[in-house]
């Protein structure tokens, strides 16, 4: 299990910067939540007021991420979580692990033609 050191913990601002660093990523919002999209498909969200972040993974990727970083990630409750939507506990998450997880989320929703053009 990965445990974050205080100097490597994720902040809402850093989370936004990482999400927007993904190829063709755009920032938008829905239901008063900031979201990050590729070709209008959401791969990550952030509610900065309470440091609540969410990423879209496959159920298999979600399981692996939670097994290796259970303090930083957990499934969203209900059917959304069963589909791979994963809560990121920013106050317990290592920045490098979150960067990797956001890249996985981006690849999960990006069109294959876009994924093939970028080595993430």
UniProtKB/TrEMBL annotation:
SUPFAM superfamilies: YjbR-like. InterPro entries: YjbR-like_sf, YjbR/MT2646/Rv2570-like. This is MmcQ/YjbR family DNA-binding protein. GO terms for molecular function: DNA binding. Gene3D superfamilies: 3.90.1150.30. It comes from Mesorhizobium denitrificans. It holds the Pfam family YjbR. Keywords: DNA-binding.
